[in-house]
């Protein structure tokens, strides 16, 4: 079921024409939406200690470790523990990697969405 079938737009046709995000999602027969997470990245400062905690205390399945990163499986989602590469990447927030079926379509739609985000 598409977004238009499940919920009619409250936007008037004139307002929809002024909103590039609505125009991009309305342009196709199927609406775009993010619905699957593939990976979550968590910054850590002590990779060995963090990996041991997720593995030994939380019982998560350790998949593999490479320099500066350790990966764990949690159902269909992969957890990546990573040492920040640069000071500007050292923040207390996580990075969420979504799975999409059509990466070019996702880029096209998301490219018109304001980049300010919820923060």
What does this structure look like?
With 119 residues, this protein is of the alpha+beta class. The chain has two domains: 1-34 and 102-119, no CATH class; 35-99, 2,3-Dihydroxybiphenyl 1,2-Dioxygenase, domain 1 (Roll), CATH 3.10.180.10. Helix content is 30%, strand content 26%. It is built from five helices and five strands. The protein has helices at 3-6, 13-18, 20-26, 47-57, 103-110, and strands at 36-43, 61-66, 69-74, 77-82, 95-99. It has a five-stranded mixed sheet with strand order 2-3-4-1-5. Strand 2 and strand 3 form a beta hairpin. The protein is globular, with a radius of gyration of 19 Å. The two termini are 31 Å apart.
Note the main attributes of this structure.
119 residues, alpha+beta, 2,3-Dihydroxybiphenyl 1,2-Dioxygenase, domain 1, 2 domains, 5-stranded mixed sheet, 5 helices, 5 strands, globular
Could you state the CATH homologous superfamily of the largest domain?
Answer: 2,3-Dihydroxybiphenyl 1,2-Dioxygenase, domain 1
In terms of DSSP E residues, the strand content is 25-35%
Level-2 CATH architecture of the largest domain: Roll
Shape: globular
The pLDDT mean sits at 78
Going across the major beta sheet, what is the strand order?
A: 2-3-4-1-5
Describe the sheet with the most strands: 5 strands, mixed
Total number of helical segments?
5
CATH class of the largest domain: Alpha Beta
Low-confidence stretches: 1-17, 21-29
Radius of gyration, in Å, reads 19 Å
CATH topology (fold) name of the largest domain: 2,3-Dihydroxybiphenyl 1,2-Dioxygenase, domain 1
Structural class: alpha+beta
- Share of helical residues: 25-40%
How many structural units, i.e. domains?
Answer: 2
Q: Note the run of SSEs as H and E.
A: HHHEHEEEEH
Strand elements, count? 5
- Ends apart, CA distance between termini: 31 Å
